[in-house]
Amino acid sequence: MKKLCINPDKKVSHINKEIYGHFSEHLGRCIYDGIYRNGEVRKDVIDALKEIKIPVLRWPGGCFAEEYHWRDGIGKKSERPVRINCCWGMVEETNEFGTHEFFDLCEELGCEPYLAANMSGGTVWEMQSWIEYITFDGNSSLANERKKNGREKPWKLKYIGVGNENWGGGGNMRPEFYGDEYRKYQTFVKSYPDNQVLKIACGAGDGDYNWTRKVLESIKKTNPYGISLHHYSLPTGDWGKKGSATQFPDSEYYHTIWDAMRTEEIINGHAEVIHSLENENNPIALIVDEWGVWCDVEKGTNPAFLYQQNSMRDAIVAALSLNIFNKHSDIVKMANLAQTVNVLQSVVLTDGDEMLKTPTFYVFKMYAPHQDAELLESSLENETENEIECLTHSVSEKDGNIFITLSNASLEKSFEIECSFDGKDINDVINEEILTAEKQAYNSFENKDNVVTKQFTDYRIENGKLIINMPPVSVISLSVK
Ligand code: AHR
User: pLDDT grade, residue 404 (50/70/90)?
Assistant: First the structure.
């Protein structure tokens, strides 16, 4: 029996809803075919994203952001220039999906837009004028152009990232150089009346603490809202041969889980650097704006399109990662899974007019009550198997409702978990759900409901405590009263 001790009276931090965010890039079939098809945004995808209560969407990249020029994507669609997507497969970029399409989509989804601005191939003026075009409500040529293009009222823009992976594809910069460039660009991120824009600096890949330190030393006086972090989990650990999304040995399962669990150590490392440099009146957030499992592409698909299936292993990675982000919600204020539709660890996949929900989708749906809840103090006994900790958990409170999520990554062990509430008795459990399947199980277009949530029944209440039986490879969510 493992003990989960919860203190219902001790709120630790606020879980920003943006931790449940997503990322969509002009890459492969994410935008075209995935989000946008036959001249319009797909209703099935919108409905699915609403179902998981998507709180924020990052766009237009990724690497693509550093070659994107927003003027290409406004005005009459038939007159928009066709470019080559040099990042992802040298395919045609028709620019049919641009600023209006993205902001209208976010409005329809009820989510915050998060723009990644081009700083290695775009000018300061280009960035500033994009913000004016989107957010200015008065009389200016840019605002009038927006109106002429069909949008009278400005949109809201809360988040802007200044650059993407500028240590790599975004210009191969040294941290000192990026720091100087960031200082210049951020000066021209203007908050026009009634729209406060929060600035996010380009952070490190994985555990590159030197990047975070050098950049923050240079930019800390500009009071950025946050600095980003990218961390992908690889089944084999080898970028040359990453491993299949659905056909994998136990060793690759454990490696993927291990790599995802490493997120916690990486967050702690960057948090230490941030805390040593931030001003206590202006805390700096960690924005994990790219994360997820990165596998080899599915056979017969374009290698540059990064299309991969999504198994129960992905669901475990999602569940444990979200539990880690919740646990560190004092500093992690946003996270964006890469990438929404048809690319890397997606929540939905499409094939022509067909769409399916992946196991990862169900985890986001199960975890949605954590959005904008208060993290409660809690601790859980654990056990290791093949160098991974089997269990992760989060407990939060909102409107008097205590919500618990648990993941069990073990391939072999079930766990009996006793949840106690600091001497307070619970009487009832509601909305209890479980997602469990064999590690390689996935949803295909032939069998879309192979891995779906079910009602969870294997629990009991004894002397005011909740006793849960958690099977191997499973995710559980429930509320207690
Ligand atoms: O998500 C795919 C790519 O991974 C992004 O474009 C880039 O930022 C990262 O390297």
Answer: very high
Q: Which of 372, 405, 432 is the last residue of a domain?
A: 372
pLDDT digits (tens, 9 = 90+) for 92-108: 999 999 999 999 999 99
What range does the domain containing 147 cover? 14-372
The tokens for 296 are: 């080899």
Based on the fold, state whether residues 212 and 276 are members of the same structural domain. yes
Task: Pick the atom of ligand 1 nearest to 232's CA.
Answer: 4
CATH code at 438?
2.60.40.1180
| 403 and 361 within one domain | no
Q: Please tell me what DSSP assigns to residue 18.
A: G
Q: Pick from 372, 399, 426: which residue ends a domain?
A: 372
- Over residues 339-365, the pLDDT tens digits come to 999 999 999 999 999 999 999 999 999
Alpha helices in 155-208 (DSSP H): 175-187
Residue type, 261: M
**Angle value at C-alpha 137, between 66 and 110, nearest 5 degrees:** 65
d(CA 115, CA 131): 10
- Is the CB of residue 345 below 6 angstroms from any atom belonging to ligand 1? no
Angle between helices 359-367 and 312-327 (to 10 degrees): 30
Q: How many CB atoms lie within 10 A of CB 421?
A: 21
CA 63 / ligand 1 centre spacing (Å): 6
Q: Across the chain, what does the average pLDDT equal? A: 97
Please, are residues 465 and 420 in contact by the beta-carbon 8 Å criterion? yes
Q: Using a 6 Å cutoff on CB, does residue 200 contact ligand 1?
A: no
Strand 226-233, strand 285-293: pairing = parallel
Atom 8 of ligand 1, nearest CA residue: 62
Atom of ligand 1 nearest to the CA of 64: 6
Q: Is the pTM of this model over 0.85?
A: yes
Number of Cα atoms under 13 Å in the Cβ half of residue 268: 7
- Note whether 89 and 107 are same-domain residues: yes
Q: 209-219 and 250-277 helices cross at what angle (nearest 10)?
A: 30
Q: Are residues 361 and 383 in the same domain?
A: no
Residue 460 sits in the same domain as residue 336: no
